[in-house]
UniProtKB/TrEMBL annotation:
Pfam families: Usp. This is Nucleotide-binding universal stress UspA family protein. It comes from Azotobacter chroococcum. It comes from the Bacteria. InterPro entries: Universal_stress_UspA (IPR006015), UspA (IPR006016). Belongs to the universal stress protein A family. Residues 2-157, 214-284 form the UspA domain.
C-alpha cells in the first residue's frame, strides 16, 4: 500500500480532488497517481450490434452506429488524456515530483479493486461528471459502490480545497472505530493537528472508559486530543459539533457493526454527504 490515487473526470470537483491528493501525497510522502476511467457503459468498445438493436440486415445503419461510437470513444479518450495532463501540470506546479497518469476503459469500481494492493489512499469527488448532469443527485452514482467495495481509506473531497487545521473522529468503540483509531495513530497524514474525538451516546462509565482508551492511544501517537460525549441522534450531533467548532474534516471507520455502519450503509449516506461542506475520510 504505497500510492495515493486520485480519481478525476473533468467535473467541477477535479481541481479540488487534485489539490487534496497533492496535499495527501506530501503529508504521507507517497507517490501520486491520477486515474481517469472511461466508463464502458457510456463508451462501449467495438461489438456486434445486429442482435441487440433489431436492425437485422441494415448494414449501413450498423456501420454508421459503429463509426459514431468509435468517434465518441476517441473524443472521450482524448478529453480524458487532456484532464490527466492538466492534473499532472497542477501537481508539478505545486512542487510534486513525477506524478503518474493512468487511463483505463472499463468499470470504475472494478478498476479500483484491481489497483487496491498498491493503494494507500483514494481521493475521489463527492460528485462526478455524470451525476452533475442529473438534477437532484447529491453524490456521484459510483461513490457508494466504491466505498462498499474498496477496503482502503477513502477521502471524499468537496468542490474546493483548504488544507485542514483540525479533524473530528466519530468514535463508538466498535471494531471499525478502533481500526480507525489505529489507522490515524499510525499515519502522518494528520499529525500536528488538533483531533476532536466524539462519542455520540449516553454519558456513562462504560462510554467514558472507551473514550479515554482511544484518547490515550492517539495522544501517545502525538495528537492533541479533545474528547467529547454528546447524547442524541448520530448524524445531527456530528454535524452540529463539527459546525460549532469549525472543524475542517470528518473521519470515521466504515462498515462496522454499529450506528455508524447503519449511517454509511443506508440512505442516510447520501443525505449526510449532501449536507456536509467538508471532506469525509472513511477509514477501513
Amino acid at each position: 500500500m504505497t500510492r495515493i490515487l486520485a480519481c478525476i473526470d473533468g467535473s467541477a470537483a477535479t481541481a479540488a480532488v487534485c489539490d487534496w491528493a497533492i496535499w495527501a501525497s506530501r503529508r504521507l510522502g507517497r507517490p501520486l497517481t491520477f486515474l481517469h476511467v472511461l466508463d464502458r457503459e457510456r463508451y462501449p468498445g467495438p461489438g456486434d450490434l445486429s442482435g441487440a438493436i433489431g436492425l437485422g440486415s441494415r448494414e449501413h445503419l450498423l456501420d454508421e452506429l459503429a463509426r459514431l461510437d468509435e468517434r465518441r470513444a476517441k473524443v472521450a479518450l482524448e478529453q480524458g488524456q487532456a484532464v490527466l495532463e492538466a492534473a499532472r501540470d497542477r501537481a508539478l506546479a505545486a512542487g510534486l515530483e513525477a506524478p503518474e497518469l493512468c487511463q483505463r476503459h472499463g468499470d470504475l469500481v472494478e478498476t479500483l479493486v484491481e489497483m487496491a494492493d498498491d493503494l494507500r489512499l483514494l481521493v475521489i469527488g463527492r460528485q462526478g461528471e455524470d451525476s452533475r448532469q442529473q438534477a437532484g443527485q447529491p453524490i456521484g452514482s459510483h461513490l457508494e459502490n466504491v466505498t462498499r467495495a474498496l477496503a482502503r481509506p477513502i477521502l471524499v473531497a468537496p468542490d474546493d480545497f483548504k488544507a485542514p487545521d483540525s479533524l473530528l473522529l466519530a468514535y463508538d468503540a466498535s471494531p471499525s472505530a478502533r481500526q480507525a483509531v489505529d489507522a490515524l495513530a499510525a499515519s502522518p497524514l494528520f499529525k500536528g493537528l488538533p483531533l476532536h474525538l466524539l462519542m455520540v451516546g449516553e454519558d456513562n462509565a462504560l462510554t467514558r472508559t472507551a473514550l479515554h482508551e482511544a484518547q490515550a492511544q492517539l495522544e501517545l501517537a502525538g495528537f492533541l486530543v479533545i474528547p467529547a460525549i454528546r447524547e442524541g441522534k448520530l448524524e445531527p450531533v456530528l454535524h452540529a459539533y463539527q459546525q460549532e467548532r469549525a472543524i475542517d474534516l470528518l473521519a470515521m471507520g466504515a462498515y462496522g457493526h454499529s450506528r455508524i455502519r447503519r449511517l454509511l450503509l443506508g440512505s442516510t449516506t447520501r443525505h449526510m454527504l449532501h449536507r456536509s461542506r467538508t471532506p469525509l475520510l472513511l477509514l477501513r
